[in-house]
Amino acid sequence: MKYAVIRYPGSNGDRDLLNAARKAGGEAAYVDYRETTLDGYDGVLIPGGFSFGDYLRSGAMAGVAPVTQAIRQAADENKPILGICNGFQILTEIGLLPGALIFNDQHTFVSRNESLKIVNNNTRFTRGYAQNEDVIYPVAHGEGHYYCDDETYEKLVKNNQIVLTYNENPNGSRNDIAGIVNTSGNVFGMMPHPERALETLLGSDDGMKLFEEMTQREVYHV
Amino acid sequence: MKQIELIVTLQPQVLDTQGEALNRSVHELGHDEISNIRVGKVLYFDIEETDNERIEEIVKSLSERLFTNTVIETYEYNILSEVPK
Fold first, then answer.
1. Domains contained in chain B, number
2. Which residues on A lie below 8 Å from B72 (Cβ)?
3. At CA A183, angle to CA A8 and CA A4, rounded to 5?
4. Is the CA virtual torsion B64, A72, A152, A50 positive or negative?
């Protein structure tokens, strides 16, 4: 499994993601946001941070960067795509995932270890976890409040697209949603940072199974 | 060349945390007659085009692709004036 770790001006989770991919046994390389192809890569990792300074709207300018077309193509080719934090914001901006991320309801930046629940372990990202397993991943965001309208929410539930929920909602997200997949199950966006939960010495290694699962399973039937 | 004023606001059902914080501050100043503050953005830009139909087409297209996120925001714009060369 060879991953592309996309780098935008202002990304800051890129090194952690590269490390996570390699630690899980995959290959990984940085890909600049001005690239127009992701041929040769089997998966795409979109890091956290503040792409383009979060100017205008978080993820807005990253969404129209040249690499976006290549990300869409990789999604169409059923390659796994994981967007974390700002990466999740970018995936909603470009319409690969429904809804949007708005300011936390207290308008404060939240940075802490977060208790979460894997509410769908039947995805290519989460099969290593038990259904309803509690995990600790750090969160660090100011705009992590997941918003969607009623119709979208009903679809998310019906299609089993909600994968990760907060046990103690830190930002006002609708129905405690922390992470969702697309209908075909190969695009996963989440606000928490599993790539910062790989070492017990640093508080939690609960993120390791996610990267191992993504990396070690080559063929999927979702 | 004309100047465009583009006003972007959150859709009414979307929580506006900036507006809520401002609302509280305004009440602390004693102005209880003020309520429902909503904070938006204004973009000004020049466009090298004089045909209004073409201007509308460009402004709408860019607003929906980049300037706004239509899942949470709404926009309106005014074609202000000829920009002196």
1. 1
2. 100, 102, 147
3. 30
4. negative
Kindly report, residue by residue over A174-213, the tens digit of the pLDDT.
999 999 999 999 999 999 999 999 999 989 999 999 999 9
Distance between CA atoms of residues A180 and A85, nearest Å: 12
Band (A217; pLDDT cuts 50, 70, 90): low
Give phi and psi for A167, each to the nearest 5.
-80, -30
Return the active site residues of A.
85, 193, 195
B44 phi/psi in degrees, rounded to 5: -115, 135
Cβ atoms of residues A91 and A161 within 8 Å: no
Domain of B42 in residue numbering reads as 2-82
Q: Is A102 within 8 Å of B21 when comparing Cβ atoms? A: no
Looking up residue B38, the CATH number of its domain turns out to be 3.30.1280.10
